[in-house]
Design a protein that fits this description.
With 397 residues, the chain is α+β, with helices and mostly antiparallel strands. It has 10 helices and 17 strands. Strands 10-6-8-7-17-15-14 form a 7-stranded antiparallel sheet. The protein has a 6-stranded mixed sheet with strand order 1-2-3-4-12-11, with helices on one face. The longest helix has 35 residues. The protein is globular.
């Protein structure tokens, strides 16, 4: 057993990190989650840190219930990665043009496409299921239906915060592409709506934290949430697929002489709910800042904008509900990072990376995150490292 077991209220808290290293607020959130009547298990990843209701970096297994705040407001947020046939020798000394071309092809920040991306004929994006997918928008909660046009124009866009697009090198000099994004504004509004609905329900009035309000199986509210949740998770997946296709297009054009080819895409959610079975029981497993790491399943565990990222293969550890961390995890809040670090610090910590180095992204400085190498070491019984990557280009909103 490589995890530390801390007593919880209804279930023990299994921690793939030193409990003493976890801030008091996050430990209290973990104890609060362990007190929920529907809880069947709680696994804590090494990137754990304070979040809304539930910590980021936690895997919550419940029977007959799900907590929308424990999913998070960026439903379906996750990553995609592709290895290319390019090598470090193919890259120019000045990568600013490549970064600029990526930013021109894929809107970042609050930006959106002028018109919805036409996926017909896009290599790498399945042309099937789109009509059904958008028809499903009309079944979403009435409170978000007015966002249809924005949702259509934002699919295939990056967003801001810790979302990014990167060009990276592996240990053999191979060039990889990765990106991190989720369900954009529509996922956020779906989440906020349902968190509010859950907090009104009578069975949630006595909870220790109102942000842990749940929906219960076989109720209209649960059915409505599941419908909207799974639609938003699909939106996030399709959003990343379109962006990766646009990114591959940029690389093909910029390196046309090399006739670039691409290996199979790796993609994984890390803010989502899945129906899974453990110990003979059907459970709703919420991964908030955690990826699924079933036996042989590929995943992506990134560091920060100046450190390493990892391609991993899951070891299928049932004690962790077949999960692993989603990244390095923050060791300080965004506001604390802005107070502590300067743009000079950002320049120093991202030396050698073609990226933004202005005050608008100081809160994403590597020093605000936990050391990714330690985070990987703490989960050697959860994943096997396939490749270690170091970015040379990082695009942020």
């Amino acid at each position: 057993m490589s995890y530390a077991e801390v007593p919880g209220v209804r279930v023990p808290i299994r921690m793939w990190t030193d409990p003493a290293s976890v801030e008091d607020g996050a430990m209290q959130q973990l104890r609060n989650v362990s007190s929920l009547p529907w809880i069947k298990g709680l696994a804590v990843m090494p990137d754990v840190h304070y979040g809304k209701g539930a910590t980021v970096g936690s895997v919550i297994a419940m029977h007959g219930a799900v907590c929308p705040a424990a999913v998070g407001v960026d439903i379906g947020c996750g990553m995609s990665a592709v290895k290319t046939s390019l090598t470090a020798n193919d890259l120019p000394g000045d990568l600013s043009r490549l970064r600029s071309k990526i930013e021109q092809a894929i809107p970042v920040g609050r930006g959106m496409h002028k018109e919805m991306v036409d996926v017909r004929g896009m290599q790498g994006v399945s042309a099937t299921g789109w009509d059904e997918f958008w028809t499903g928008f009309d079944d979403l909660a009435e409170a978000v239906r007015f966002r249809r046009e924005r949702a259509m124009k934002q699919i295939g866009t990056l967003g801001s915060g810790n979302h990014y697009i990167e060009v990276l090198l592996d240990g053999e000099g191979g060039v990889w592409l990765t990106l991190h994004s989720g369900s954009r504004n529509i996922g956020n509004e779906i989440a906020d709506h349902h968190i509010g609905e859950a907090q009104k329900l009578p069975h949630n009035q006595g909870l220790i934290d109102r942000d842990l309000a749940v929906f219960i199986s076989d109720t209209p509210q649960m059915a409505a949430y599941r419908r909207d949740l799974f639609w938003a998770q699909e939106y996030a997946k399709r959003n990343r697929a379109i962006m990766m296709t646009l990114l591959r297009g940029v690389v093909r054009r910029e390196f046309s002489k090399a006739r670039v080819t691409f290996e199979a895409e790796i993609s994984c959610h890390h803010n989502y709910v899945a129906e899974e079975r453990y110990d003979g029981m059907d459970l709703l497993v919420t991964r908030k800042g955690a990826i699924r790491a079933g036996g042989g399943e590929y995943g992506i565990i990134p560091g920060s904008m100046g450190t390493s990222s990892y391609i991993v293969k899951g070891l299928g550890n049932a004690d962790a509900f077949n999960s692993a961390s989603h990244g390095a995890g923050r060791r300080m809040s965004r506001s604390a990072a802005k107070k502590r670090f300067t743009t000079r610090d950002l320049e120093d910590q991202t030396r050698g990376v073609e990226c933004r180095k202005d005050s608008g992204v100081v809160d994403e400085i590597p020093g605000a995150y936990k050391p990714i190498e330690k985070v990987i070491e703490q989960q050697r019984d959860l994943v096997q490292v396939v490749a270690k990557l170091k970015q040379v280009v990082c695009v942020k909103g």
